[in-house]
Amino acid sequence: MRTRLGAALLLVLAACGRSDRSGQTPPPLPTAQSPSVGEWTWHPIGGLAVVEGEVAEPTDLVLEGRSIREQRYAEAGPVRWEFFRPPEGETAILRTAEGRELARFTFSLAPRPRPAPAAPRLARKPPAPPPAPVPAPAPTAPPAAPAPKARAEARLRPLPVAPIPDRRGRDLPSASEAPSGPRPRAALFTPITVEPATPRVAPATPRPVSPAPPPATTVAPISIPTGAGSAWPGMGEALNLTRGPGGQKRILLSFDGGSSAEVAAEVLDLLKARGVRTTLFLTGAFIRRYPALVKRMAAEGHELGNHTMDHPHFAPGMKRDPKWTRERIQRQLLDADAALVSLLGRPMDPYWRAPYGEHTAEIRRWAEELGYRHVGWSEGADTLDWATPKERKLYRSGEAIVARLQQRLGRDGDGLIVLMHLGSAREEGDRPTDGLGAFMDRARKEGWTFVSAGTILRDLGKPAWDPRHRLALLNGTSAPAR
Questions:
Q1: How buried is residue 285: exposed, middle or buried, by Cβ count under 10 Å (0-12/13-18/19+)?
Q2: Range of 45's domain?
Q3: How far is the C-alpha of 133 from the C-alpha of 184, rounded, in Å?
Q4: Which of 56, 168, 262, 289 is the most buried (most CB within 10 A)?
């Protein structure tokens, strides 16, 4: 009898345990991971801004501010993104193509105040020893423990951020949108011989290239026939000019204008004082940001070459990024050219320089379809004048850069093409332009002549394309200056 009662009691207890477990709440499901898995930061490198972060999955990233709009595709993992630094104090939003905000940056080099050091914590007093027991008829209750002090929590108050005005981005064609069907016939262009530039004054009111077109921000898609290499003698050659002919003691001091112009006026003053006309490679962003400087460059007879619209990375590691198709690269060049047409009423000279020096033979041929010869620089002739002391591996003082140029001139300077920049984040007194005038004066005394890219191409017997033919591609599509 007792055995049966014990078995029944065990069954009842087991049933109660199952009911208790069935009433437990199931664990919550894991939440979906956002594209960003780490903190996003930025830091300057000379005239560049470098944004670094990480994404958990392949993501199309967009960085947009008042005067900047950068777009790139990022694979899953760490992301390092270099571009020309926006103007001081500008704010930009980093987001995905779907509109999810990842970070906000304020591109400012002003030193930030250091936070005040935290007050030292007071050492806690050791607890008092328990009182000696006092004989009493009834034991006394122990003293109540002091209530723990509540730790003050720092509260972050969100600051209101003014929204950035909505600006419609440019719709860039993808590789899948390449034009299909029969292509139009190639136009025949007449090569011209490049003559030394003569000073020309830009008209106060630029003449419109065509009857007033509707405002546009980009150049219409281009369809240029494949195999049109006979359209002009240089098309399809994939020329990369890095040196002029020897035996003439000629040198080209070329300057790139990307997004800043700290030393541009000083460079123009040095050249004007010595009657030197050279080749300046400008981005469309530079043209829109510094129209007065660009007008002065044209008025003083300098050649204005193409440096693309906003200085993107076409070929990191000298391998073309697949997203940069023929149509997109040609649009970068024509957008920059359209900015100059809007300002001066005439197109760029028939030369271009790839951003960061990243190009391939294929990319150079695509540029030649629009009439642009690629002008690079001689090996070891990149002055790295944009690097500041923060870039220790690249930095050389302004005096060291000029001294290195002087040594190079004496060793193998004939036909040298030198790369310098119109922008500099260096402190005054540490810029190569401080000693550039003395270098030029000494070189002239030694019999050297400073020439332009057009002069070198003429000396090499390389025909140049008449840039006026490019107006047919820009007619009615010129981007208005901002």
A1: buried
A2: 41-107
A3: 108
A4: 289
Q: Mean pLDDT, to the nearest integer, of 439-467?
A: 93
Kindly report the CATH number assigned to the domain that includes residue 74.
2.60.40.3110
Q: What average pLDDT does the segment 369-392 reach? A: 92
Helix 361-368 and helix 326-344, axial crossing angle in degrees, nearest 10: 40
- What tokens appear for 70 in the block? 């950068």
Which of 107, 128, 161 is the last residue before a domain boundary?
107
Residues 102 and 237 reside in one and the same domain: no
Assess whether pLDDT exceeds 90 at residue 421: yes
| Cβ-contact 329, 293 below 8 angstroms | no
CA nearest neighbour of 296 among 285, 309, 280, 316: 280
The torsion defined by the Cα of 309, 311, 316 and 318, in degrees rounded to 10, comes to 70
Please state, in angstroms and rounded to a whole number, the distance separating the CA atoms of residues 409 and 444: 11
What is residue 229's DSSP assignment? G
On the question of pLDDT at 382 being above 60, the answer is yes
Per-residue pLDDT of 74-132, as tens digits, reads 877 788 887 777 888 889 999 998 999 999 999 887 654 444 555 555 545 555 565 55
Residue 69: per-residue pLDDT: 80
Q: Which long-range contacts (CB under 8 A, 24 or more apart) does 358-364 make?
A: 358/313, 358/314, 358/315, 358/316, 358/318, 359/240, 359/314, 359/315, 359/318, 360/315, 360/318, 360/319, 360/320, 361/238, 362/238, 362/320, 363/314, 363/315, 363/320, 363/324, 363/329, 364/238, 364/239, 364/240
431 in any annotated domain:
yes
In a domain, 317, yes or no: yes
Mean per-residue pLDDT, 344-357: 96
Q: What is the DSSP string of 357-421?
A: G---HHHHHHHHTTTPEEE---TT-B--TT--TTSTTT---HHHHHHHHHHHHHHH-TTEEEEEE
Do residues 389 and 395 make contact, with C-beta atoms less than 8 angstroms apart? yes
Asked whether residue 282 is domain-assigned, the answer is yes
Confidence of residue 144 (pLDDT cuts 50, 70, 90): low
> Half-sphere exposure of residue 314, counting CA atoms within 13 Å on the CB side?
29
pLDDT digits (tens, 9 = 90+) for 27-48: 554 444 456 666 899 988 766 7
- Residue identified by tokens 């204005």 is 304
Asked whether the beta carbons of 465 and 454 are under 8 A apart, the reply is no
> Structure pTM?
0.57
CA distances, 237 to each of 95, 242, 301, 372, 415 (Å): 40, 15, 28, 11, 21
